[in-house]
Amino acid sequence: MWVSDRWRDFEVLAASDGERLERWGEYILIRPDPQVIWHSGRNHRGWKDYHARYHRSSKGGGSWEVRSLPEEWGISYGELKFLVKPFSFKHTGIFPEQAANWDWMMGLISGRKKTREKVKILNLFAYTGGATIAAAKAGANVTHVDSSKGMVGWARENAKVSSIPDNAVRWLVDDCPKFIEREIRRRNSYDAIILDPPSYGRGPKGEIWKLEDSIYDLLQRLSLLLSPNPLFFILNAYTTGLQAATLKYMLEITIARPHGGSVYAEELGLPVDESGLILPCGAAGRVVFLNRQ
Question: What letter would DSSP give residue 100?
Fold first, then answer.
């Protein structure tokens, strides 16, 4: 398991009965987590003295109960800075378990930077830009693509507070599969690709996206966008049905074999302070290309 255990401004304090008790900077949040199927008691005082809690609705979705919380606030991960806030469907704007991937990619980018080659990265379904900020901070040029104008705007604010140069990121509001097809026709290529697709979603014209039905074809198309000297490829999956071994199998066929890479896949996890155990948070697959590290 790849564990994101270097946070200072975030921690999972406890987890029980379908919920996580978390600290985001100085604020305590309670959020639902379907992986938490155990009953370990609620002894931590934060279960009672929280700042906000997300309540699921029996009809689907849910809402925040806010006791005392600013509209937004900042947290840091090393040199990376992010704005967070409670918004729809329990999210806060950052997936803290992704820090393990940020550390990994920043190391590879920094290594390539020593050769004075500027790494060109494509970040798809890029959300509020955690991976974009990490890659740009390490010295890469990033093309950031997401279909939500609001999320791209938020990502730009994260870049600003992290002091990312304006010319380090190209910000695009676009449908990711359609953008990929246009880039193939343009014969553009990238040294690294970060793919963080949702489990389910809709395109700008109501197109239905379902990860299990679309991901393999998408990987095949993305293989055509890798440069002759690629650095890495990352695929994240939050869908419980897609295990790490499944990601590894798909990446091996579509990305690693055609380009000469090695595949590694693991669950992502966050340490739980109260129990000392690791909370599973989805899976990720990584391809690193031979003799390119």
Answer: H
φ/ψ of residue 65, rounded to 5: -100, 110
d(CA 263, CA 280): 20
Place of tokens 């705007």: 153
Give the pLDDT mean for 273-282.
Answer: 95
Torsion sign across C-alpha atoms 277, 102, 129, 211: negative
Looking at the domain covering 2-84, what would its CATH class be? mainly beta
Question: 96-289: same fold as 2-84?
Answer: no
Query: What digits encode the pLDDT tens for the residues 40-96?
Result: 999 999 999 999 999 988 777 889 999 999 999 999 999 999 999 998 789 999 999
CB atoms within 10 A of CB 281: 24
Among 150, 141, 77, smallest CA distance to 109 is for 141
Q: How confident is the model at residue 111 (pLDDT cuts 50, 70, 90)?
A: confident
Does residue 146 surpass a pLDDT of 70?
A: yes
- Cα–Cα distance for residue pair 2/11, rounded to 1 Å: 16
- Classify residue 247 by its DSSP letter: H
| Domains in the chain: boundaries | 2-84, 96-289
Q: How far is CA 244 from CA 23, 70, 102, in A?
A: 28, 37, 18
- Residue of 172, 111, 178 lying closest to 138 (CA atoms): 111
Any idea which fold 96-289 has?
Rossmann fold (3.40.50)
